[in-house]
Fold:
Amino acid sequence: MSHSEKDSTVLRVGSVVETQFGTEKVVDITLTDRKHGKSGSSVEHLNWELVQGGWAVVDLDNGHWQYGDQISPAQEER
Structure:
């Protein structure tokens, strides 16, 4: 697996994602203690399978937040 393929399977703080608010940068990721929970542990990176499975809350640089299954990887970095 190439470095870029490996990186595309992980959401990281600083990643650019598509949201209902447009293209935004991730400023914090919380691995929640239950699916669609609001509390848990802050992490620097998380596998996209867990993110899109609803096990993450993602804070965005626009001041909003989204559950992990509400976002997707952006096609281009900002």
Q: What stands out?
A: Helices lie at 3-8, 48-55. The two ends are 25 Å apart (CA to CA). The CA atoms of residues 44 and 73 lie 16 Å apart.
